[in-house]
Every structure is written in structure tokens, then in C-alpha cells.
Amino acid sequence: MDNPIRYIVHDGMVLTMHDISIVEVAARQVLGMKKTGTYMLIPELLKKIYEFTVEKKIQISGAHIFLCHETTPQAVMEANEKGTALVEVAWPVSGTVKGAGEMSVYELPGGKMVHTVHRGPYESCESTYHLLFAWIETQGLRISGPIREVYPNDPRLVKMEDIITEIYVPVI
């Protein structure tokens, strides 16, 4: 997409066009869980899924994922404050896998998505999201589904400033 915008400045931060791109994401099989509550549920749910994969000898085939069903900063804050956020987490898995209880095996849809990477503590992602949403708006795109955060490294094994969060926003 040819666009004259080369960078966006938001709250003193600069994000260049090279930091955000439109990508085509493939669908993938995941083992996931959904619960209503606050986003503090994310680590607990990820741990439950991981323990299930170990117990059932399920092959994990990618980094774990959080799907945020609230798609505006205001909706995120409100849902978290009220404890009404739909918290969905998943691990990509391969082979024949069966869910049990709260855990389901399903295909996470692929498609056209805006992608960027946040480096640093999870708690500091907000500014990256503001820049990402501004970029999406300048491109004339609309968010068309849950926002995905993919966590390719382990915060227990890297410095806080080296934590990576890949953000994917499905758009039309």
C-alpha cells in the first residue's frame, strides 16, 4: 500500500512506517481457553494450558497467544476495571489433539493483519497500541476481530527491556 505517511508521532514517541506492516497470517490449530474476568487471568490460563500439554504429551508448535476481544483502548480499560473482559489464551499445537473440560482445540483464523513488535515490559505496551491504532486509522483500515499478542520469549529468561510482544490486528 503506497502511503505518503512515513512516521507517526504520538505522546512524544515516533513510530516509523518500517515498524508497522500489513501481513497475511496463516490459520493454525490451537489449544485454548476463554474466561471472563480481568487480564490478570492471562498467566494463570497459559499455565493451565501448558500443564495440560505436558500431561497429555501434546506437541506445542509455536509461541503462546493472548486474544483481546476488546478492540479499543477505552473498551480494554472498562472491561478490565469491571472484570468483564473476555480473556482468551492459546498455544499453537500440532498433530491430532483433543481438548478436555475448559480447553478446546480449534482453528485460529488467519487473514490480513497489521503487525508490529513491542520491546520491553508487557505493562508498557499501551504506547505501542496507541501508535498502532493511529497507523490503522491513517490507512483507512478497520479492526475486524480480536487483537493477538504473541509472546516469543520468556520474561523469566530475558531482561525486562528484551521482552518481545508481537501484536497482530486483523483488519479490513
Textual characterization of the structure:
With 172 residues, the protein is α+β, with helices and mostly antiparallel strands. It has a single domain, classed as Regulatory factor, effector binding domain (Multidrug-efflux Transporter 1 Regulator Bmrr, Chain A). The chain contains 3 helices and 11 strands; from the N terminus they run ββββαββαβββαββ. The strands form 2 sheets. Strands 3, 4, 5, 6, 7, 8, 9, 10 and 11 form a 9-stranded antiparallel sheet that branches. Strands 1-2 form a two-stranded antiparallel ribbon. A hairpin with a 2-residue loop joins strand 1 and strand 2. The longest helix has 15 residues. The two termini are 13 Å apart. The N terminus is likely disordered.
